[in-house]
Amino acid sequence: MAVTDEAIVRIRDMIVSGELGPGDRIPPEKELSERLGLSRNSLREAVKALDVIGVLDVRRGDGTYVTSLEPRLLLEAMSFVVDLHTDRTVLEMFAVRRMLEPGAAGIAATRMAEPVAEELQLLVDGIDASASTEDLVAHDLRFHQSIVESTGNEYLSRLIESLVSSTVRARLWRGITRVGAGERTIAEHRNILAALRNHDSELASALMLAHIAGVEQWLRKAAP
Most C-beta atoms within 10 A of its C-beta, which of 58, 82, 103, 217? Predict the structure, then answer.
């Protein structure tokens, strides 16, 4: 194992064991390197890497702290990787969405509070097929994210948010080139929302699966 990798693992173990918790200031570089038996250079590189992925927060002139370790921070690095996708890999992202979002819709159906359902109803009622492709895609993003947030699972929410955002270009392409794409999307959203409001988790999950698979299937046929 490279010394920098070892330093990363040792700091991670300190956090996992509870020796360091969210918001804690880690020991000074010299003290920590001596305690871990690692060079200051390897420790410095490890801290830089952990800063990039949102585990540590390096504050100039103040020290280095463990972040809040909230999912939003920890999944930002993954969001960066997802943003680098190509047209070829977008199909793989739709496949991951097809695995995750039906389950999320099923959970949301059991937990959907009436105020959230009302907001979703206003969202669906506030759009029609005459809207621009950009507005329809923005509506689609808000619809899906609201459902995932209703699960109460922030890791799942942030993960799916990254995947949904990364497939915007494909949905814009579909909206421009496929006749009736807007009407179909809105109709499917209405059906999904009805299942959510009825707290029918199996139906909500099945409808979400068909909704995402439909776009994925179109993309497979349209992609060169």
Answer: 82
